[in-house]
Design goal:
By secondary structure, this protein is mainly beta. The chain contains three helices and 36 strands. It has a 28-stranded parallel sheet that branches. Strands 8-9 form a two-stranded antiparallel ribbon. Strands 12-13 form a two-stranded antiparallel ribbon. A hairpin with a 3-residue loop joins strand 8 and strand 9. The protein is globular and about 55 Å long. The chain starts with a strand and ends in a 7-residue tail after the last helix.
Length: 442
């Protein structure tokens, strides 16, 4: 391995080591070796890995510079977040590894002013405790933190990632990527400091990770290349905590398919498991989620969610994505072949927010749902379900209870179908014929 100390690096946490990293990466690339970071705190600006691996010894800390000028614009344009500026970048390459027992401190809090909370409009004043849950303002921040693009055979193992200013770890159009045993811990008041974003990738395994983030813990979408599906993804044995969506599949124009989720604990999150298609051309299909424990709560501030454990979103999303990015695909349905089996939901809420041309076919929800007052039937909002098909095992007794006998029936006080966005006659006809097929809660 190529030791950065051989290129004048100083691990005192004060000296800037960007040039030492640049020289070490160049030497490692020439020698076909990895870069070694020994114990110490190494302050640095952007590290361009150029397909080189990185090993962090115990006690090693790579710390991001707090200065904007240390993050040059890289040759990549993100569809949502603009020009790429990040601490660690790898654009292309094969067999890249970042591993070890060290820490990458992204120093994201240094870009934010925590005395300036972003308080959403409210009819009543926020309490001091609620203000502490709101996002905070900034002048500038890096647009990414650790960014991999079109890397084949990528492995991240064992390292700790702290305090991201924006998305912590992004895998964009990568193949055969693994994130194993990572600890990701970001500031809960920093917006967009997502844990892991899997974007238009093929073959990704995320396993054994502990992720705490202000925004999504794990997001699977096609946001970096709308025309390329994100597929063949496994998420297992993870503990997640989010101020927004702990685990989300899909986003606007994305196509997401072939996803397995198992043995995941979601704690203290604003929203648990989320499925999103915000355009008629969006698609999430072939998903199975098993053995989930989901505990949600509602936070103040500009966060996604209102304490829903499981949420399907099929309405337009007010985002900054230019309409010319739309690949203009037409899909017969937007959510297809989705099974959720064995979920314990402390919020007791399973929600559907539907819109025109958004249907489920065939989808299932399975397992016991525990509300705040104990075991019982899940709360359902605007579900697209086949008449008479939804049932639940009440209080774990084995007694099955029909919830829907002759189509969707709102709870007392809920709005009627005619008041919903898809309540017009032509949409009701579509719901009866196409949307309610083979949707079960066992």
């Amino acid at each position: 391995m190529i030791n950065i100390m051989d290129f004048g690096a100083a691990g005192d946490g004060a000296a800037l080591n960007t040039e030492s990293f640049r020289q070490a990466v160049a030497a490692a690339k020439s020698a076909g070796q990895a870069v070694l970071v020994p114990a110490g705190c190494f302050l640095t600006g952007t590290i361009d890995l150029q397909g080189v691996s990185l090993h962090l010894e115990p006690g090693a800390v790579i710390k991001g510079s707090p200065n904007r000028e240390d993050y040059p614009v890289m040759p990549y344009q993100h569809n949502e977040l603009g020009p790429l500026q990040a601490l660690i970048v790898c654009l292309g390459g094969e067999n890249v590894v970042i591993d070890g027992e060290g820490t990458i401190d992204l120093n994201g809090s240094s870009f934010y002013d925590f005395s300036r909370p972003l308080v959403p409009p409210s009819r009543v004043p926020f309490s001091p405790e609620q203000l502490e849950e709101c996002t905070v303002d900034r002048e500038w921040r890096p647009t990414q933190s650790i960014f991999f693009y079109q890397v084949k055979n990528l492995t991240l193992r064992g390292v700790t990632l702290l305090d991201a200013p924006c998305w912590t770890l992004t895998l964009a159009e990568c193949e055969n990527a693994k994130a194993l045993g990572l600890t990701i811990d970001t500031n809960l008041r920093v917006p967009n400091d997502d844990g892991i974003h899997v974007c238009s990738c093929d073959g990704v395994i995320i396993s054994g990770c502990h992720i705490t983030s202000g925004d999504d813990c794990i997001a699977i979408s096609g946001i970096t290349n709308w025309a390329k599906p994100c597929q063949n993804v496994v998420v297992s044995d993870c503990v997640l905590r989010s101020c927004s969506k702990a685990l989300v599949l899909g986003y606007i124009y994305s196509h997401v398919r072939n996803v397995l989720i198992s043995n995941v604990i979601i704690q203290n999150s604003n929203r648990g498991l989320t499925f999103m298609c915000n355009d008629p051309g969006g698609l999430v299909e072939n998903v199975r989620a098993v053995n989930l424990v989901i505990d949600t709560r509602v936070r103040a501030g500009n966060w996604w969610g209102n304490g829903e454990a499981i949420f399907f979103m099929g309405v337009k999303h007010d985002s900054a994505i230019p309409p010319e990015q739309n690949p203009c695909r037409d899909t017969p349905v937007n959510f297809r072949n989705i099974i959720i089996d064995g979920a314990i939901c402390a919020s007791g809420k399973c929600h559907w927010r539907g819109g025109r041309r958004v249907q489920l076919r065939p989808c299932g929800l399975a397992g016991h749902y525990r509300g705040k007052e104990g075991l019982g039937q899940p709360g359902l909002e605007r579900p697209y379900l086949r008449p008479g098909s939804l049932s639940t095992d009440c209080r774990g007794t084995g007694r099955r209870s029909r919830i829907l006998e002759k189509g969707w029936r709102p709870d007392p006080g809920e709005c009627t179908p005619s008041a919903l966005p898809w309540g017009r006659a032509e949409n009701r006809h579509r719901i009866k014929r196409r949307a309610y097929e083979n949707c079960w809660l066992h």
